Amino acid sequence: MNPNMIKKLQKMQRDMVKAQQELEASTFYGSAGGKMVTVEFTGDKKMKNITIDPDAVESPEDIEMLQDTIIAAVNDCIKQIETETESVMSQFTGGGLPGLF
């Protein structure tokens, strides 16, 4: 294989690892129910915090709605992480390997 191509691939690999590490160190926020529930995740999809507005629960009947709202907030945040990860990593994978084709 061409030595220049090997150097390009090695650099691309280093850049990908760095980008992945930066994503994992990032913080993402999700919310649902008009921000009744907010969650905070790291880029590697580990929940760091959850905040529930005290007005979210006025009676025991509100618990089921609150549970659904928490699930929606968590899913919102995970979707943001996946979208950002795809966006960042596509610079390395979208369109094949530069210089090979």
Automatic annotation (TrEMBL):
Keywords: Cytoplasm, DNA-binding. It comes from the Bacteria. SUPFAM superfamilies: YbaB-like. GO terms for cellular component: bacterial nucleoid; cytosol. One of its GO terms (molecular function) is DNA binding. The keyword DNA-binding applies. It is found in: Cytoplasm, Nucleoid. InterPro entries: YbaB-like_sf (IPR036894), YbaB/EbfC (IPR004401). Pfam families: YbaB_DNA_bd. Homodimer. Binds to DNA and alters its conformation. May be involved in regulation of gene expression, nucleoid organization and DNA protection. Belongs to the YbaB/EbfC family. This is Nucleoid-associated protein G4Z02_04120. It comes from Candidatus Xianfuyuplasma coldseepsis. The lineage of its organism: Bacteria, Bacillati, Mycoplasmatota, Mollicutes, Candidatus Izemoplasmatales.
